[in-house]
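Aim 2 progress update. The chain analyzed this quarter is reproduced below.
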Amino acid sequence: MTFLSATSQIRGFPQPARSGVLPASRGTADRQRTACLAMMAATGLYLLFEIPFGSLVLDVVGSAATREEIDRLEWIGRVFTALAALIVVWGWLFDRFIAGLADLRRTALALALSALVVVPVVHQLVWHLVEGVVAASSPAARQRAANAQLLRTELFSAKPRIDGLVLEPGALSRPEWKAFAAAAPLVGIADPRALAAVAPDFRELLRRDVEDRMGGPVRFREKEFEPALAELRKAYGAYRDGLAARTAALQPAEAQADSRWREWREFMMRVSDKTMRFDTAEVRNLRAKLAYKGLHLADDQDPRSERDFKRAIVGEASKPAEAAFDAKVREALGTDGALPRDIDTFARFAAQGPVQAKMRSLLGLDASEPPLPVDAEGAAFEKGVYRPVSEAVQRKLSAAYVGDPSSFADGGANGTLGRDVFRAGIVPPIALALSLLGILVHVFKFSNYAMILRAQHLPGNAGRSRRGRHVRIAIAMGVVFAALLAVSPSTTRLTSSSFVAAADAGAARALPWLPFAAVSGPIRAEAAIYPLKHVLALFPHFSAVASYVRSAAR
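Predicted structure tokens:
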């Protein structure tokens, strides 16, 4: 992404200084030659990476790209943006060198220092700009971005089922379709009518998407349900371990209860003359006596009852053990809720409320869903587990994608998802547009420097007119671009799709500031120059960049 590259223009030949501090014209020409050669080298090296970068963007976005790949594309784009800004600064420093305001040593030092400052500053500045755009996005725009990504997922499914979208074999491998996959999400974000025109029934797409991702009962059991059961079995093991630790901790308390009861019974025998008969006032005194000794009985507990006495002692002594047991269970389940102390089978354990809550969480279900059996097989599993889970996921997605967009606001249930899909929707088309702009501007600059060098070998003022150079370069670039369009007949294949025609019309309404159709124009431009970009992307110098981005998908 080359946000600042368009501002970089060489100033041509320096104007005579009023103070007469410029050295002789021969020295000025030498400095100008040095500056032009250095800037041609920097600009040429930049183009060697910027041109294939556009190919990489199309190859990644024109496939089932992951969020990690998009993030790495954005990071690489910020690096190229910073380098473009650095070339702008270097051009200004070389202008000072040509004008005699700085010698070569000071200029070289300034070039190095500017690289240390400009690259990290611009890299972070672009990040903050993108994050600012994402943060400022509305919940409705994020919802449209999610819907556009859903359409994009459908596009790259095995058999896309979108009305008006008929794909020939191998169509998605062609550059025009890759460019369409990159541009379509931005159209959906920009114009609510575009999505309504190309996909009238998102619920059906959501249902298909959920079915495809779940892959049927057998695949769902292998990929989702069995891993969830494995987590529950770990929690059951932690429950059993907690029970064992609790039992071990309570054994001393039970022995102490026997000893203290004998002492307390002997006391009651003495004060009652061995009759063990007490009136109401005397029972109150017994309760107060135990409280004085630190043993507090509940209102429904009788100080004369061996069972109640021992329960009170064991209860007081077991509080730390019970708390440790409950903490261990909560840690294993990741949810609140007490469990009975006598569960002896995994099936009974899995039927408990807190365990069911853990299971629903692992499967992405809401707490309001009915209990799920853990021992169902075959048709019973499909009816009791697979279908309820599938329908619950569909309801949840429909509520988010088709219902009230407020869930996509920051802090909402889909706030993080909304930010991620919005960023993934705007980054690729912006990267492609700015990459194309950077290529055009820097090719123009490179040609301008080359023509200045050539003019030094021409007699008189031949070739020294800035306006003449710029006009010739612009005409030559227009001719080359027209030739690329002419030899790329495949770029017209999108026009046969009513799906694309609807998207293009919606984009033209939503983005009237573009001088051409919002979708088909950039698509045809990118598809026309893609062969050249792709060839450069195969060169060894770009392999490390491509490998870094592609490795995110592994």
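Residues 298 and 312 are 8 Å apart (CA to CA). DSSP finds 18 helices and no strands in the chain. These observations will guide the mutagenesis experiments scheduled for the next reporting period.
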